[in-house]
Design goal:
The chain is mainly beta and about 300 residues long. The chain has one domain (about 5-245, about 255-275): Sandwich (Jelly Rolls). About 10% of the residues lie in helices and about 35% in strands. It contains three helices and 18 strands. It has an 18-stranded mixed sheet that branches. It is globular and about 45 Å long.
């Protein structure tokens, strides 16, 4: 059996412990970290400043400490100021609790907490591949990111996917906190960072480095070390279903990535807003009505109205 590298958790860049405010002129209000770039079905935001919960609104700002909560078959994509995207899948709860981005040097320092549910992080490249540490925290693990794409899930679904994998099987797991993380890396049609990158998964005083596409780490409970294995096609499909949230019409088309590509397209329009573009687009969250333009007035045979 092939073994993947472990090293002491103290060396992982994932163990970051600073809190800060956004230092970016891209958004006018302090503490803004990005915008709600795409919304599907029921998504709510618990504001850090007021503690009030309100429905997510397309292109609204996301602030430091805001908590995003998605319902079943729902999804939110957050476009961060460095043009990285963080996708929140069904039945999830996520908070961006640290964010610093300096557009002059294209350096960042980002920390995100995932309490439950599925998620995907895709590093930005449209502004020239930002540098600096990014970490994602689950209840049982910390993931240090080095410029790449990865997906994960926290909770009962992580346990279900992992126990069906021959390399994991039945292990003692906490169904509320178990965490499954998989390195996806760039694909042939992927927007985002084009380098393979790597992630460091730290748990139980151990750190596992995932540096090959589809390598996964499962942390079953607090204090347990990561179990490293290659996630099967069936496991990848199960994880994708949590991020896609609804079946695609006509079988999905485009290799079943219709939902993902639609969200990426919405994020592209949102990016033009962040960068001051004039075209703010007309993307609507699923379930919202598109504005309908009135038909042009009839013309006479001479071409005049």
């Amino acid at each position: 059996m092939k073994r993947w590298p472990f090293h002491p958790a103290g060396r992982a860049a994932a163990a970051l412990a600073c809190t800060s405010l956004v230092a970016s002129p891209l958004l006018a209000q302090a503490n803004s970290v990005g915008i709600e770039a795409a919304i599907r079905n029921k998504v709510e935001i618990r504001a850090a400043a007021t503690k009030k919960v309100k429905p997510a609104v397309l292109h609204d700002r996301v602030f430091l400490g805001d908590q995003a909560q998605t319902d079943k078959a729902s999804q939110l994509q957050i476009l961060l100021l460095d043009l990285s995207t963080f996708t929140v899948g069904a039945s999830a709860r996520v908070t961006i609790d640290r964010f610093v981005y300096d557009p002059a040097t294209n350096r960042r320092d980002v920390g995100i907490s995932v309490a439950r549910g599925a998620f995907r992080f895709m590093s930005g490249r449209s502004v020239g591949k930002p540098t600096g540490p990014v970490s994602v925290h689950t209840p049982v693990a910390t993931i240090g990111i080095r410029g790449t794409i990865f997906e994960g899930v926290v909770g009962e679904e992580a346990e279900k996917i992992a126990e069906r994998e021959p390399a994991v099987g039945k292990v003692k797991s906490d169904s509320d906190e178990a965490s499954l993380i998989v390195l996806r890396g760039p694909g042939p049609r992927t927007q985002g960072d084009t380098t393979p990158g790597a992630i460091d998964v730290s748990a139980g005083d151990r750190t596992a480095t995932l540096n090959e596409a589809d390598l996964a780490a499962y942390v079953p409970r607090r204090g347990a070390a990561p179990i490293v294995f290659r996630l099967s096609p069936a496991g990848l499909l199960a994880l994708q279903s949590l991020l896609r949230t609804v079946p695609e019409e006509g079988g999905g088309g485009n290799g079943g990535h219709g939902g993902r590509d639609a969200l990426i397209g919405a994020a592209g329009i949102a990016a033009s807003i962040l960068l001051g573009g004039k075209n703010k687009g007309s993307v609507q969250s699923q379930g919202q009505k598109q504005p309908v333009k009135p038909p042009p007035p009839p013309r006479s045979p001479n071409g005049r109205p």
